[in-house]
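Bench notes, afternoon.
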Amino acid sequence: MKNAHLVKLFVNPVAGGGKCRKLYPEIVQGLHEAGIRCDVIVSRYPGHITEVSSELAARGCETVIACGGDGTVNEVINGIAGTETALGIVPAGTANDFAANMGISEDISVACRIIKQGRIKKIDLVRVNNDKFFAGTGCIGFDAEVAAFAARTRKKSLDPFLAHVLGGILKFFTYRPKTVELRFNEKRYFGKILLAAFGNTRSYARGILITPRAVPDDALLDICVVKPMPKQKILSTFPSAYKGAHINKKEIALYQTDAVWVQSVGPMELYGDGDFMTTTPFRLKVMPKSLNVMAGCSVF
């Protein structure tokens, strides 16, 4: 890291159901021990981090550090996408999937050392229509409805992890497959789905390897379509997804493309990096090498 005075730390106090707020003193100490001096900016409202990080990037800020979960990281990304400002991450959220995909440990001292080392990787971003980005995984269908349920219940002060568990149980019994159309590479998929995941990285939802062949700097988007299957088979398939072995099932279809058009019979919500992005129809487009990330040494 060349200019420590050009470092800003974004803190989301509600990330991880308050986990970030509790860990804040330890995080500041870890950065201090790593020799990193930074100005602290506390998130005040949804979108605040995106607004401020965009202004900082425009003024030539060298590094911004996201202290929180995937949602906090996504807010920063939407502010600095396409700029030279580098993203550092101290994971302190519920899932921290993007950090894990970047080889960043949840051990605070290790995460701080990665930032200090300043090893920059240029990775792709996925643009949603023309106004938003995600860096990890987007989804529609079952998983998106679970995410929507969790987002609603978090507003009632329910623990985020518990909210996702309850949402998963509820949707397991109530979700009905939706009919979608995907157009990409002069190809077309049309039919009912349990879910569709659009992966720039390999895993989401606390380590599920939904698109195990995804590489975040190959200018390609990996698509995993999960077709309807009996509930008993869903239960038997789910554990295999943590190892990426679900792709061998006949109900799974995998594709790669640099852009995809998605529409559905009836509106479906797209969640990207755990946050609501848009509703069908929408277009996803890979934006190669659009983000500088301070990553661990053992990634892609």
